Amino acid sequence: MTELPRIEGTRPVREAGVAAAEIPADATVLVSGFGSVGYPKAVPMALADSDRDLSLTVVSGGSVGEEIDVALVEAGAIARRYPYQARSPARAAANDGRMAFSDRHISTLGDDVQFGGLVDADVAVVEAVAVGEDWLIPSASVGHTPAYVDTVDSLLVEVNHAQPRSLAGLHDIYRPDLPPDRDPVPLSAPDERIGGPKIRFDPDDLLAVVETDRRDESYEFRDPTDTDRDIAANLRSFVTDEVERSPLFADAVRLQFGVGSLGNALMGALADADFGDRDLVYFGEVIQDGLLDLLDSGDLASASATSLALSAEGQDRLFADAERYAEDVVLRPADVSNRPALIDRFGVVAVNSALEVDLYGHANSTHVDGSRVLNGIGGSADFTRNAALSILALPATAADGDRSRVVPMVPHADHTEHDVDAVVTEHGVADLRGTVPRERASLLVERCAHPDYRERLQTYLDGALEGGGHEPHDLDAAFDWR
Amino acid sequence: MTELPRIEGTRPVREAGVAAAEIPADATVLVSGFGSVGYPKAVPMALADSDRDLSLTVVSGGSVGEEIDVALVEAGAIARRYPYQARSPARAAANDGRMAFSDRHISTLGDDVQFGGLVDADVAVVEAVAVGEDWLIPSASVGHTPAYVDTVDSLLVEVNHAQPRSLAGLHDIYRPDLPPDRDPVPLSAPDERIGGPKIRFDPDDLLAVVETDRRDESYEFRDPTDTDRDIAANLRSFVTDEVERSPLFADAVRLQFGVGSLGNALMGALADADFGDRDLVYFGEVIQDGLLDLLDSGDLASASATSLALSAEGQDRLFADAERYAEDVVLRPADVSNRPALIDRFGVVAVNSALEVDLYGHANSTHVDGSRVLNGIGGSADFTRNAALSILALPATAADGDRSRVVPMVPHADHTEHDVDAVVTEHGVADLRGTVPRERASLLVERCAHPDYRERLQTYLDGALEGGGHEPHDLDAAFDWR
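Predict the joint structure of the above. Result:
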């Protein structure tokens, strides 16, 4: 079989340095990339290596690799950064105030960029597996590339020969209508296809095509720990019971898992769950290695996401057999994969992690001690808010047991008590549905907190109860436990 | 014109006391009512007056009147209460822990009750303007009555002769499909109709019909204060500029306002806004008196909501002319009026209030000092999260100026920094879109805080900045200002 050409027609192919020189020093640059894959590499590296005095605003779909969030950050070239970062130089720059970082929900970012007064975009730089006269085919993630390409009048396309051309088969590009009279997204099942592989653009907008041959700097997942396995067992038991109980899950179970090693381990653990005759389906934002196992074993019927957030080994496995995986795997724009309306319509069971939860069910996913940002909220709230069943799964302690993740009051709330249905740790499950705040506190102390911290949490609660109130807090002592 | 009959066919009409006796002492009772109107009156009063030892769970659509949240609460008959209350006896009982109160988002409550493991419902008691063999027509609100009637096998209907039969013309009853394969709600414009006036039920479920002739204990709106007028002027100016700027509002402006005197005053003030040729349309959860003025003046093209949350005077005005108002006013089930997907599709501009906002844009709408609940979150988060433009409008101070409503850290978060686009007070507007936390803090101090509190807030901020971090907080001092 002859591979299809990567560059069709006569396109303006340039060296990365030449193309990068087209980007103004203070430009707002929209880049492809989500889940640490599918981001542009050559143009960012050329920018980082240039001796220009850059002050860029960089807006990605989600997390990207070292070429942007390490090299460009260390070059001091990024003044502002949206909406998510997961590399330590970018994190340090955000926390030091050297880089103005704004973390944003994923689902609405495309609209925000295009209409919302968020930024005034100058140029888009996007990675593709192929480009033609008025189209490109994205690589290992779709993210917000369709919205970004729509937004700008200047486009740079990086055709990456290290990404298989066959990834095209995974993509289902559908751009939602624009408000105020947008129609519903016509997706009636998680595995349905409503578009094709190509993102269209105005040929006049194409500044240049750059060729690269460089792999994504992808995720590394650690092996599951004993704690991961215990959390997984508690999660499996809770979800299995709920699937039996609720008519919502009579025919199928649709799951989403947050990105990261714990999420990856939890996915894998569901292979052992007994969901009877029900189809197990994934409708989330990232496909991690654990899902490939489930697909290969036949336990998972299909997977829909916006990114192949795989380890290098996982990439090898999928790339070697992309056409077969494309039968059951679909990559969508992030404003489809994370769309509140679809998460609701499909009755998704959402499983995300958090840094800590408080006695009443509020969760902090982003800011250590309330001040120091970790990565960003990403899609966690898109799913936690709109799922039929929203679960937070996390270890009961951090810092080798020196710190409880069940705390009196979170110093930063990303998910409120109104959105969290259940909390799962290695010690148990707190089913918070229908409970009132005082009941939630008891459940979280007794079932989720590490035994070493229960007395101390109860002491806080007893003190707060003396002051009364529907959701009793002692504001003088709320942060004393740190 | 002869009025249509209130009770069609031979229905089992009973005295309220006889009907109330059918309700078990520890029943979970789903009641109609939203925005303090359209709730059952005779059966709750009969329960409150009985000498039975009651321990009821009461789930309403939204806020209800004194017959439930005063009389039944004071009789000690309510053990658990969902999802909202706005009367001081209910509030006191929730804060004292005498009544287990759980506040919930409005949009998802119907699903939660029907499938979510929230409660195990026994009976529904709903107010109607008419009832037939297998249908009823709701009165001044729809709320979650369609879902509640679907959920139970035992139904009591109160036909209220004090509510005009002609309210039927306002109702558009459409029950969304059920997950996991629910279709989108097929509403393509805020004023469209996709149902009819009747809620259907299984005739075997009807325990009894009770007749009443008692008006709703409706809202009282205070006259706008100078502060209200200044907030309104700032809001009008901000929204007008945004309508000019954004392509989202090229054809129409769709607005939602929160319930209450401030919301009511803000609605009225938009009559003076210049939106050019654009249609002004309301898509919210409650219709308050201010909207009737706009409808009568021709400034408002149409209004969609789930409740006529009017003053007694506003009721008189609408009731006298219900057929004419029905041309432009539509009442929908709360899971349609508040549906995230529709708020998104219609590009709504949402204007809600809050008790306080913090330096980074998190808002507390529900808990005074973090502990004492006021009313509940209601629909505020449904709109704030899903609107095209989310505005919080509030006075800069409370307690006659003795307390700043812009605070270092909210002691309870209902809306996170990720969801609030702008904050408006009588002093100005902080447009938070695209900003990072440190920028938000400066904007809120300089433009929204009362001048008397700016120095103190800046002092907190300067201290927090010494500790560093993306969103700098000093946890030792975060609540010192109280």
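Chain B touches chain A through 85 residues (CB under 8 Å).
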